[in-house]
Design goal:
With about 160 residues, this protein is α/β, with parallel strands linked by helices. The protein has helices spanning about 15-25, 40-50, 70-75, 95-100, 115-130, 135-155; strands at about 1-5, 30-35, 60-65, 80-85, 110. The model has no long low-confidence stretch (mean pLDDT about 95).
């Protein structure tokens, strides 16, 4: 089980790193790349075209501003692509969100919240859990732990 995380710029890494942490916690192999849809379009196309044969099963793409990376990758691969719209100096990331979510028919991109790296990794894990039952149990355990943590916080708060 392997996920590729592709970011359009090194400046996206502090957010992308959160996805890496989740994947690592669940024991999912990943590789992280910097590939720009606009500055390295041939590299982006080659990466997407060959991702499946490299054992990648889900692609997470993080990009800001015009945010075409997820769409460019999705147009060239049969693999599921999850887009992370990045908060940018322009419009607080709303431009990125709209660029990622507004894909034409036939080129789907699952989209998480602006800077939603953790959810992108969790969604990738849920997709992989269709094939890998051990991940399904880990997701169930993760959700139980989230619930227990909030109940404990509530109990502490209401002392």
């Amino acid at each position: 089980m392997k996920v590729a995380i592709v970011m359009g710029s090194k400046s996206d890494y502090p957010v992308v790193q959160k996805a890496e942490c989740i994947l690592k916690e669940f024991g999912v192999e990943y590789e992280t790349r910097i590939i720009s849809a606009h500055r390295t379009p041939r590299v982006a196309e080659e990466f997407a075209r060959t991702a499946e044969e490299k054992g990648i099963e889900v692609i997470i793409a993080a990009a800001g501003k015009a945010a075409h990376l997820a769409g460019v990758l999705a147009a060239t691969t049969p693999l599921p692509v999850i887009g992370i719209p990045m908060k940018s100096s322009t419009m607080d990331g709303l431009d990125s969100l709209l660029s990622v979510v507004q894909m034409p028919k036939g080129v789907p991109v699952a989209t998480v919240a602006i800077d939603g790296a953790e959810n992108s990794a969790l969604l990738a894990i849920q997709m992989l859990s269709i094939k890998y039952p051990e991940l399904r149990q880990k997701i169930k355990d993760y959700k139980i732990k989230m619930e227990e943590d909030i109940i404990a916080l509530d109990a502490e708060f209401n002392k």
